[in-house]
TrEMBL record:
This is Aspartate aminotransferase family protein. GO terms for molecular function: transaminase activity. InterPro entries: Aminotrans_3 (IPR005814), PyrdxlP-dep_Trfase (IPR015424), PyrdxlP-dep_Trfase_major (IPR015421), PyrdxlP-dep_Trfase_small (IPR015422). Coiled coil: none annotated. Its cofactor is pyridoxal 5'-phosphate. Pfam families: Aminotran_3 (PF00202). The keyword RNA-binding does not apply. The lineage of its organism: Bacteria, Bacillati, Actinomycetota, Actinomycetes, Micrococcales. Keywords: Aminotransferase, Pyridoxal phosphate, Transferase.
Length: 455
């Protein structure tokens, strides 16, 4: 098995860093001028881009991004799924222009007919009959968790170690001593001790799920169908089915968050794998880049909620804690209708999944040829490599395989060769406009930069 030479990695990283700095003078200059931005970026997480300063966007279309220094990239980051439909897909742009310009009324607090169209389409894809809209997946998770607490009368959320569901307070937990939840390192000023709100289990470890649920205080199991925010950690056979059964046995609801795993197919992993959630959350991609999100619930959950609201015990209409002024606005719903109806179609998914399969095979070929101790996992239209072989089975194992220096080297080396990967991950996502030539370009460049490390 090939071994990593840290000294060689450090010197390659230095070369790539120097090339990045000298090739992007305009981005560097703009970053240097951003004195009024906290962390010099529009949002602090943009400092996740490696290289000391982010690329500044000039324009983007399809799967191409061009920076202010005039370099054009094949974009596999796709806004970490926000641009899974490609950048500025034409049908979405047309619908947005019509709503914002010709028709007018970006946000009026009034519904349009688009919302019902989207609700029906979401039911066709994901099965849930009743939907509410948000402006982010985070909000969808937050509000859905409140409904789950109300519906079950139980206080806690069960999550998996190293999950990510947006900035949801309850989810920043790791297993601690004596089965208690503890705050994840880096969690910014949690409002209360995580053990008051959360139980934590280990992915693919059904006994840990059973032990957490056995306390009888879990309102909702909040999970992705595969972990996707600590590399992709796929579920083992039967794991999700057993989680579903255990949730039911212990009176907890199952919330499936498909914000990323929508990549599994046109109906997400829920359709592809026959999952049976009580609550379904999605965001990011379905508006083609326009802020939006949604949660769907079963009729049983709806009835359990309205029992309490009808009795005057909770308020989901005024200031009870569910909803936002701009949620479900006309622009956002027009964008969702166009994106789901005309861009992220069944045919588009077939193309995207085929390309992700080729991408995965290309990465695996480099690993095999050079005997690199890494792995690659595919989830429909997305794929991700991780610095462990075999592929990690749990969030904990995957976290242990993190390597910041390797991440920095690969991201910079690929970027310097015209390929953008998601900054938080080594994730690549295909969009309807990605081509086989783009995938082959990654395969070739990946072979070159990994070869420089191991040959
Ligand atoms: N759920 C999952 C599974 C996610 O990966 C993310 C973001 N990466 C979110 C929710 C939150 O999405 P947003 O930041 O758009 O609210």
């Amino acid at each position: 098995m090939a071994t990593l030479d840290r000294a060689r990695l450090a010197s390659l990283l230095e070369q790539e860093q120097a090339a990045y700095t000298s090739n992007h003078p305009r981005s560097r200059e703009l970053f240097g001028q951003a004195d009024n931005l906290f962390g010099r970026v529009p949002m602090t997480w943009m400092n996740m881009w490696t290289g000391g300063f982010p690329l500044y966007l000039d324009h983007a279309t399809g799967n191409r991004v061009t920076d202010v220094d005039g370099h054009t990239y094949v974009d596999f980051a796709l806004g970490d799924t926000g641009a899974m439909a490609g950048h500025s897909p034409k049908p979405t742009v047309a619908a947005v222009q019509r709503r914002a310009g010709e028709l007018g009324g970006i946000t009026t607090m009034l519904p349009t007919g688009d919302a019902q169209w989207v609700g029906a389409e979401l039911e066709r894809r994901f099965g849930m009959p009743l939907w509410s809209f948000t402006l982010s997946a985070t909000d969808a998770n937050r509000w859905a968790i409140r409904l789950a607490r109300l519906a079950t009368g139980k206080p806690k959320v069960l999550v998996f170690a190293y999950c990510y569901h947006g900035s949801v307070d309850e989810a920043f937990a790791l297993p601690g001593p004596e089965g208690k939840a503890q705050s994840r390192p880096g969690n910014v000023a949690p409002p209360v001790d995580l053990d008051l709100t959360t139980r934590v289990a280990t992915w693919n470890d059904i006994e840990s799920v059973e032990a957490a649920l056995a306390h009888g205080d879990v309102a909702v199991v909040l999970t992705e169908p595969a972990l996707t925010n600590i590399g992709i950690v796929l579920p083992e056979d039967g794991f999700l089915e057993r989680v579903r059964e255990l949730a039911t046995e212990h009176g907890a609801l199952l919330l499936i968050d498909e914000t990323h795993t929508f990549s599994a197919g046109w109906g997400g992993a829920t359709r592809a794998w026959g999952l049976e959630p009580d609550i379904f959350v999605i965001g990011k991609s379905i508006g083609g880049g326009i802020p939006c999100g949604a949660y769907g619930i079963t009729r049983e959950v709806a009835a359990a909620v309205t029992r309490h609201t009808d009795a005057g015990e909770a308020d989901i209409v005024d200031v009870g804690g569910v909803g936002g002024t701009l949620a479900g606005n006309a622009l956002s719903t027009a964008a969702m209708r166009a994106t789901l109806g005309e861009v992220l179609t069944e045919d588009a998914f077939a193309h995207m999944v085929e390309l992700a399969t080729a991408f995965t095979a290309g990465v695996q070929a480099t690993f095999d040829e050079l005997d690199v101790p890494w792995s690659v996992s595919q989830l429909g239209a997305r794929a991700e490599y991780r610095f462990a072989r075999p592929a990690p089975r749990t969030g904990e194992e995957s976290a242990a395989a993190a390597d910041d220096e390797l991440d920095a080297y690969l991201h910079l080396a690929l970027c310097n060769r015209g390929v953008l990967m998601t900054p938080f991950h080594n994730m690549a996502l295909m969009c309807p406009e990605t081509t086989r030539v783009d995938v082959d370009r990654h395969t070739e460049v990946f072979r070159e930069v990994v070869g420089a490390l191991f040959e």
